[in-house]
Each structure stands twice: as C-alpha cells, then as structure tokens.
Amino acid sequence: MELYLERGFEQTTVAEIANRAGLTERTFFRHFADKREVLFGGADALKQLLVGSVADAPDPVAPIEAIAKALEGAGALLQQRREMALQRQSVIDTNAMLQERELIKLASLASALADALRKRGVDDPAASLTAEAGIAVFKIAFARWINERDPAVLPEIIRKLFDDLKTVTAGGP
Amino acid sequence: MELYLERGFEQTTVAEIANRAGLTERTFFRHFADKREVLFGGADALKQLLVGSVADAPDPVAPIEAIAKALEGAGALLQQRREMALQRQSVIDTNAMLQERELIKLASLASALADALRKRGVDDPAASLTAEAGIAVFKIAFARWINERDPAVLPEIIRKLFDDLKTVTAGGP
C-alpha cells in the first residue's frame, strides 16, 4: 500500500511489493492472485462477515433490518481501520481499472447478501431489492465517510442513510 | 451482434464486423471506440433520455417519482427492442469483461441521474440515494424481464419494483 502511494499503482511491481514486505515473489503469489488483490483481498473477509451477520440475525426481523445491521457491523470494522481505508481509496481513485474492480466487488457483495436473505426464506424480488438497496446505501455512506462530507462515524452514517432511503422511496424529499 | 452470437465475442474481429456491416474498418472506428462499444454505444443515448426525462419532470414531483418515470420511459423503449436486448444480453453473459463494462455503465447512469436531481434542487444524500436506488430497481427489473421470470412488460416490472422497494425499505417483508 505504501509503495502504491509512493510510486503509483501502475509503476509498482510485484517484486517491489514482495521485497518491501520481506517476502519472496512466490510467497506473494501464494497470498494474492495479482497485485490488485493487495487492495481487494479484504473483500472476501467482508463478504463472509456480512453473510454471517445476515444468517445470524434474530428470526422475526425485517430483511432491511438484517441488512442494515450487517452493514453497520462492517462499518464499525472499517471505522477502526480508517487510516488504511483512506490510503486504499486514494490509490483506487488514481486508476480506472481499480475503480472497476471495486464496482465488481460491490456487485458481488449485493448478490451474496441477496442469497443470504433467500436462505432466511425471503422471496424475490424482495431479497435482491433489499440487498441492492443496502449496497447502494453502503456505497454512498462510504464515499461520504472517506471524503469527510459527513463528520459522523461510519456505522452512524449507514444507519442514517437507511432512514433517508426509507423517506425518499416513500416519496419524501 | 449476429457475429458475436455466431462466433463468440472474443473471436470476432473488427474487420469481420465492418465487413458484415458493409463498412471499412476506418468507418467502424469513427463510430465505435472499440468492439465493446457495439454493445454499449446505446448507453449514452439511454443516459441522455433518462437525464432529459428527470429534467423535464413537472415541478412538484417527488425525486423518486421523477426517477421512476424516467426509468419506465427507458423501459418502454427497451420493450420495443426486446429481441435485440435478448441477443445483446446473451453475448454479455458469456464474457466477464463485458459484464464489468455493464456495471460501469450502470454506475455512470446512477451518477448522471443524481446530477439531474441536484439540478432540480434535490440535496444530498437524497439525490444520490434516490438515483442509486432507482438503478438498483432497473438492474433487477431488467434481469427479470430478460430471464422471463416475470411475464409483464418492462415498464410495468419497473413500476412494480419501485412499489416493492418502498415496502422493503419501510421494513416490510
């Protein structure tokens, strides 16, 4: 990550990353498929966290509440790693291919969340609508948090945006 | 499009496409930046249609209603080109890079719609939330329409999903 910030993502080689981390290139590739995965490796852990949280939600809970709780949990984790999240984002912002990868990871999170809701017996289209709406909230909350347009901590921004989403979808301003 | 279906997207060259269309390669590149743009060139027209529709919405209308009306209009247009939409989708489904491009185009539509709402005086986060939620509805509606999981015509599916979105975000099932 430091190297990406110092030299730019494009200019950094896997050999340099491995060297800085005190690893061989071979060991690097045991952990990461390519150098983009240094930035996106956390997405799988995030997915598991979210899916686990939806699966463990108490039984009589509205789907949107299960998704909101899961995303607030993820937000709390990211809040503890704000410095790293900021660095990561400033690397991603410099490179269109990384921004695309970010969109793909978000789409994949949405479909994992929809699956988790279906496993709880939520039908379609409610499952996919709730999951996609949740990821939309998360994406906007994350951007506000990164750009400090919102002084609150991430889980609070997420919670507030779920309330706002309810207002706007009901035809509010 | 025919060639992509016959031979696969990867295997089709620009020379072959130009030849089938009775164009020179040079003329092809005057119209399309690359062979992916044959599939995505329509996205700009769609964006203009949507943005124009939001701009022209009657003044005292809820943001979500302006977005829903715009997307229903786009849906009506796609409905008239269902055969082409089906062919296009079956090409995209075979190729991960094309699916990524589709996600990028959808993200870009969402931000254009958010801008259009801001121009109508809608503040953030309402503007971005409404736009992203609208694109989430559109994405799900389109998938249902393509896969014929839903026998209705596209504008009706879109309208119905906006109602469902209101229900789920309000904590309904």
Describe the structure in your own words:
Two copies of one chain form a homodimer. By secondary structure, the first copy, chain A, is mostly helical. Helix content of chain A is 75%, strand content 0%. Chain A has two domains: 35 residues, Arc Repressor Mutant, subunit A, CATH 1.10.10; 131 residues, Tetracycline Repressor, domain 2 (Orthogonal Bundle), CATH 1.10.357.10. The first copy, chain A, starts with a helix and ends with a helix. The first copy, chain A, is built from ten helices and no strands. Chains A and B meet through α6, α8, α9 and α10 of A and α6, α8, α9 and α10 of B.
Features:
homodimer, mainly alpha, Arc Repressor Mutant, subunit A, Tetracycline Repressor, domain 2, 75% helix, globular
